[in-house]
Amino acid sequence: MALIEDLRAAVGAAQVLTGTDMARHARDWLGKYQGAPVAVVRPGSTAEVAACVRVAAAHGVPVVPVGGNTGLVGGTMTTGGVMVSLERMNRIRAVKCDARLVVAEAGVILSRLHDAAEAEGLYFPLWFGARGSAMLGGVLSTNAGGSNVLRYGSTRGLCLGLEVVLADGRVLDLMGELHKDNSGYDLKQMFIGAEGTLGIITAAVMKLVPLPRAHATATLAARSVPDALVLLNRMQEATGGRVEAFEFMPRSYSERLREARPDLGLAFDHMPEVTILIEAATTVPAEAEPDATGEVPLVALLERVLAGMLEEGLVTDAVIARSEQQRRAMWARREAAAELCLGLGPIVDTDVCLPLDRVEAFLVQVLARLEALDPGARSLTVAHLGDGNLHFTVFPTGDDAVLKDRVLELVEDAVEELGGSFSAEHGVGLSKLPSMARRKDPVALEVMRAVKRALDPEGRMNPGKVIPA
Amino acid sequence: MALIEDLRAAVGAAQVLTGTDMARHARDWLGKYQGAPVAVVRPGSTAEVAACVRVAAAHGVPVVPVGGNTGLVGGTMTTGGVMVSLERMNRIRAVKCDARLVVAEAGVILSRLHDAAEAEGLYFPLWFGARGSAMLGGVLSTNAGGSNVLRYGSTRGLCLGLEVVLADGRVLDLMGELHKDNSGYDLKQMFIGAEGTLGIITAAVMKLVPLPRAHATATLAARSVPDALVLLNRMQEATGGRVEAFEFMPRSYSERLREARPDLGLAFDHMPEVTILIEAATTVPAEAEPDATGEVPLVALLERVLAGMLEEGLVTDAVIARSEQQRRAMWARREAAAELCLGLGPIVDTDVCLPLDRVEAFLVQVLARLEALDPGARSLTVAHLGDGNLHFTVFPTGDDAVLKDRVLELVEDAVEELGGSFSAEHGVGLSKLPSMARRKDPVALEVMRAVKRALDPEGRMNPGKVIPA
Questions:
Q1: Which chain A residues are Cβ-neighbours of B282 within 8 angstroms?
Q2: CATH 3.30.43.10 occupies which residues in chain B?
Q3: B92-210 has which CATH code?
Q4: What digits encode the pLDDT tens for the residues A55-67?
Q5: Other CB atoms closer than 10 Å to residue A421's CB: what's the count?
Q6: Nearest Cα residue in chain B from A163
Q7: Is the pLDDT of residue A343 over 90?
Q8: Strand ranges inside A114-260, DSSP E
Q9: DSSP secondary structure string for all residues of A299-340
């Protein structure tokens, strides 16, 4: 086949996978999507990515980039396209300590960025469960969020520069390292969150921040979400914005955790309505170094705020992490979320964002409506509450498409009524195309199509994703 | 004239200015540019802006938005186009305290946003000299920076949602209020910093932050920029990133200040090589409330850091603001910058950004080269040093275009050699078109043109700006 021969000429025969060798890339890790690429190519440089894209263009074949394959929305699936795996583009080109930035290729796994930064006393503040396999190109392409967005922003806000291979194989070099650069349109913004539909991200310049000297981490029980949010506000005021994570696990989550991962334990003997994991962090020596009593001042501060809330009845129980081991145990219970969804049968997963003061109303409404629609359905919620970002997952009683779609509509109706978004941090891919068609402003969809046509006139860059037909 | 009649029908006869009534809008405030619009229209609503754009489209006439007319790059000049002044779209639609955001129209003056936020105990953290006249639509269209970017980011990072009238009069509603919303391409990013070339921004949702409870402000003298930068790093470490401004004024600036604004005084009796204005701020009660000795802890911290640097000889003199009046006096000397440039004859102004550790090298190189090129030329530098953003202004000995262009090239050569950008925070407009043509990556220019064609196929939205022909 001429296409395969040309790809082999572009990257070397060993880096063109076909047949069963493609199995690992062709299927998403949750097993929800099964693609059928014509080949998986593994270029080792930006020039090789460009060469592959030109070969695909010459043959009129779609091009679909893939990184760590940890996506949740089917964003890398293709039938008949060439998959470009960035996994060999895994060089960290530079860590610049004074400028607090890292220059890295798209195939660098997040945890390697964490390690490289930490070795220099710095921190790469993008943090979520899949950090051991997710790659830089993928988190940029989906504008990934995670647990620390509250403090440091989403991927978009961490990106200073970008290198992109365009649909015709031209290389767009936007690898600036400056904090102010208004030299024309800020083109990198178009490719961040575009899921490979406008070009393939091959490298980026990402901000680093000072490595925290101390964390203050606690798990606490509350009766309601509004009660819990009082804690967020008080800690933000007391620390001047040093809260890094504020994660919410309702009773249904704790029950499922006990059922599926009894080895991880639970924070409390009882089963509270609301469990919160809060973490603050500081880079200030005076806040991080133990005082005369041996207490870390930031931890003592969290303790005082929690004590006040316990007294007022806003918090009903609380445990403070006294060691890194205890801190890790608290996070393990939160990061088991993805696993907890496995093995519960048919699934409708959502990734919604709400104004913080509407989260409680959302949960009440959606659970009542779900009970009316499908009485036996289970649900599982876990949330980056500090951002208003909920992963509300439903396990309906049947696997038929009509029921699943009605469940999805039910959730999204409630989100829309409360001023939220149906898509927060996982991307659109294939899974949210119907939602885009139903919920997104029609003018916005028209403008997206115009941008897509301008940058990818032949419609070969990850076709069929993000923008509904 | 049919065009004028149609515009009158769209917004009412009283809001269509022609002839001498347009003088205020047709000329930029520095008097560098003189336009000749066919009319200035003053729509009072988004629907009226859309109507004006449709009228202009029907007549095939360009459309150029204008706000406070405080721009520095000729971005609102037009000969033969319709100017759309947003000044009557000056409603603050909502200040949402819990969500910490403001919903405002494009014609709202920045200082009104400051006041509206402060009334609710919040702060709108975009701050620069022209805040009394610059309007929201203009700061978004230029992605304006200013003195607090170090702490809060540029305009782009403060924007949550946007409303835009497109080239054909459609209204694009992106007025989201969420911190996570990945529902397709983040289209608002395209219009921020596009200077009206892709559409007219009519309203926005902007983030607010907690109002600082206390400031610690000082003016200090140092021998060199690298010495001064040690202070920035030490204060950032000691406070965990609470430095809001770090402004640099070299000896030439102080000399010009004494000459042009003797009423403002100088911080020191002598004339130091490097004068720095540093300001930190805190929202934490424990850092803001005077202790037993009557000292504000944040101010005491700045004092201790400065004392250490005086002892080491890194700082040669320092004054701490002991009252709001003293603080304002320090800022008045910094914010006189624009005025100080007036009356010095022909001018070549620049707005460049450099990596922080290259600022000293830039100044040394560029002054030496300028001395060689045009020995009698004066220069005036003022800088948001914390961002690496320098306003380096040259007053050449002659007014001929060739000399001025050589001066500009000299500055931009040095910027390019040191990894900087020729455009930091003022925008491109007309003034930086030659620099865009000479310095910007050709592929990036091609992509900008493709985006422009996609959104404005007839090329009628602020034509001839930002992207060189």
A1: 240
A2: 2-85
A3: 3.30.465.10
A4: 999 999 999 999 9
A5: 24
A6: B444
A7: no
A8: 122-123, 159-165, 171-174, 200-207, 209-210, 214-222, 243-250
A9: HHHHHHHHHHHHHHTS-SEEEE--SHHHHHHHHHHHHTHHHH
Tell me, what's the pLDDT at A30? 81
Tens of pLDDT, residue by residue over A71-112, are: 999 999 999 999 999 999 999 999 999 899 999 999 999 999
Please list the residue range(s) of chain A that carry CATH number 3.30.70.2740.
344-426
Phi, psi of A63 (to 5 degrees): -125, 130
Interface test with B, best of A183, A202, A284 (most B CBs within 10 A): A183
Q: Which pLDDT tens digit goes with each residue over A15-35?
A: 999 999 999 999 998 888 999
pLDDT of residue B30: 81
Q: What is the CATH number of domain B2-85?
A: 3.30.43.10
B259 in contact with chain A, both atoms CB, cutoff 8 A: no
pLDDT of residue B113: 98
**Averaged pLDDT, A217-232:** 97
pLDDT of residue B342: 86
Q: Helix, strand or coil for residue A17?
A: strand
CATH of domain B346-427: 3.30.70.2740
Is the CB of B442 inside 8 Å of chain A's CB atoms?
no
Residue in chain A lying closest to B281 (CA): A240
The two three-digit tokens of residue A102, written as one number: 């890292």
CA distance B198 to chain A (A): 10
Chain A partners within 8 Å of B153 (Cβ): 157
Q: Are the Cβ atoms of A190 and B192 closer than 8 angstroms?
A: no
Portion 155-174 of A in contact with B at CB < 8 A = 156-157, 166, 170-174
Residues of chain A within CATH 3.30.465.10 domain(s) are 92-210
Runs of H (alpha helix) within B100-205: 110-118, 136-141, 149-152, 155-158, 188-191
Does B210 lie at the interface with A, CB-CB under 8 angstroms?
Answer: yes
Q: What is the pLDDT of residue A245?
A: 97
Based on its alpha-carbon atoms, the radius of gyration of chain B, rounded to whole angstroms, reads: 23
Instruction: Identify the closest residue of chain A to B242 by CA–CA distance.
Output: A240
Which pLDDT belongs to residue A342?
Answer: 86
- Tell me, yes or no, if A142 comes closer than 8 A to chain B by beta carbon: yes
Mean pLDDT over A212-227 rounds to 97
pLDDT score at B322: 96
Determine contact, residues B258/B266, Cβ cutoff 8 Å.
yes
As given in the structure block, the two tokens for residue A170 are: 């031209």
Nearest CA in chain A to B153: A179
User: Which residue out of A122, A151, A185 would a mutagenesis test of the B interface target, given it has the greatest number of B Cβ atoms within 10 Å?
Assistant: A185
CA distances (Å), origin B452, targets A454, A455, A460, B138? 9, 11, 21, 19
CATH class of B214-338: alpha beta
**Pairing assessment for the beta strands B82-85 and B39-41 based on DSSP bridges:** parallel
> Hey, are the CB atoms on A240 and B242 less than 8 Å from each other?
yes
What per-residue confidence (pLDDT) applies to A426? 95
Instruction: Indicate if the pLDDT at residue A261 is higher than 90.
Output: yes
What number is the ipTM of this complex? 0.96
Q: Give me the pLDDT at residue A220, please.
A: 98
Residues of chain B under the 50 pLDDT cut: none
Is A342 an 8 Å CB contact of chain B?
no
Task: Please tell me if residue B285 touches chain A, with a CB cutoff of 8 Å.
Answer: yes
User: Which chain B residues contact residue A357 at CB under 8 A?
Assistant: 98-99
Shortest Cα–Cα distance, A218 to chain B (Å):
21
Class of domain A344-426: alpha beta
